[in-house]
Amino acid sequence: MKVAIFGDIHGNYDALQVVAADMEEEKPDLLICLGDVVGYGAEPLKCIAKVREMGALCLAGNHDHAAIGKLDVEFFNLYAKAAALWTREQLSDEEKEWLADRGFVMHFDEFAAVHGSLHAPELFNYVQTILFEALDKPILFYGHTHIPLTFFDTTPMTYTMERQVKIDPDIKTLVNVGSVGQPRDEDPQSCYAIYDMDEQIVRLKRVAYDVAAAGQKILDAGLPEALALRLQLGK
Fold this sequence. Notes:
Blueprint: E1 2-6, H1 13-26, E2 30-33, H2 44-54, E3 57-58, H3 62-67, H4 78-90, H5 93-100, E4 105-107, E5 111-114, E6 139-142, E7 149-152, E8 158-160, E9 164-166, E10 173-176, E11 190-196, E12 201-207, H6 211-220, H7 225-233
Parallel strand pairs: 1-2, 2-3, 5-6, 6-10
Antiparallel strand pairs: 1-11, 4-5, 7-8, 7-10, 9-12, 11-12
Helix pairs in contact: 1-2, 6-7
């Protein structure tokens, strides 16, 4: 069985389109979206429609909740707040209801999935302290930080930024799948994960897209210029 895990699309439809096309070539049996479908980018409606069209199981992200008024944007930085309030005005009641209905965690036999952290997932905490204790499966897939990185519950704890990771079912593993729409590891290419359950291998795939086009849409929408610039820088 092959699973595609992706997230942090952030209203970037240009990026989502090429990732969706790449996924079609992979032919996964299951698609999981880790949330933050909207926020920052200029095409939140198209992104919501695409995720739904793909038939992906989808979790809630903090920017999704901010866009529907379920999360206080006063704690967001200036640019994130502006984008959240702008996005809120674009969404229909039906789209807001769909975002509101997303859960916080998915549990499967061999892995779990969450947007931020398994510890109080509704708070959308960042994985700053690695809490392997909260994981009762071999693997946790998560997003939120936009940086693809894999942690292993070894002594001492180890990590890797390699694009292919061999999974040992006896060692708990946390896999950050990176970001489709706003990478922050200084590589502007989209990132998502393919988990081959038969081979017990996770591949973190990078996919190039038209960054300039996505940035121009942000400017045309009247959103902060910094949001377009960071796409080019991968930050």
